[in-house]
Amino acid sequence: MGNLYRLLKLQVEGSSLDSTSHHKMGKVGASAGVKQGMADALAEMTKRSAYFHQIEEDVKNYAKTIKQINTAITSFKTSDMSELIKFHGYVESHLEKLTDESQVLARFEDFPTKKLEELRMGAALYSKLDTIATTLRNWSIVSPIGEHLDKAESYFNKIKVEIDTLERTKDEEAKKFISHNIHFDFGILISIKELMIDVSSNCMELAMKESREAQTKENTRGGSKNGSRKLLWKAFQFAFRVYSFAGGQDDRADKLTRELAQKYKEI
């Protein structure tokens, strides 16, 4: 019994010592963690202090410029998209110098932030539409027409979604722009549709040309004419999709679709 008592006592005292040791180590670990946390917090405060100091410096150094931009944006009005793009570039050339635009401009209570947003949206939208128009205007039709039709249709599918969406929302968007004296020229949508019709017409012309050449070879060899028929049908389908997208077609496109349809029947 005595031996058992001593053994149990040693275990109890050993457990207590271990607990005390762990407790002390826990305190040391916690203390180290607190110190590290404080160091991190101080570092962050120093960093933020330098950051906000730079913002205050921007407010001071660019105050005159910002006030000039404020006046310019507030009084700006246009229906000329070239002027819109140019003015947007002028504004951005100054605002891009700021450390944190939103923080700096927030120090100027009367700054026309909402009009700045509409200015940016208008410039970005027109630049995007103008890029589409330029791409279609410079579109080159090359042989073989089968592969080229795939390329043309791929681009058409891409812009169709964007243009259709804009057609549905343009009235609402126009009101927003007008409320800030920006009369956005949505007439560029019509130009894009007309240019798309031109691309389609060029495809039909080349398709009929290649079809005639292929038919001549087929007649000489006495082979099947399915290749020519498929080519014409593919061009006609593309023309019809463009017609539906544009809401009509010009005289040239109308003439070409009739010729293509007649050519298809004759093969």
UniProtKB/TrEMBL annotation:
The cross-references to InterPro entries, in alphabetical order and at most eight, read:
CHUP1/IPGA1-like
> What protein does this entry describe?
Uncharacterized protein
- Alphabetized UniProt keyword annotations: Coiled coil
- Which residues lie in coiled coils? 149-176
Q: Which organism is it from?
A: Solanum commersonii (Commerson's wild potato)
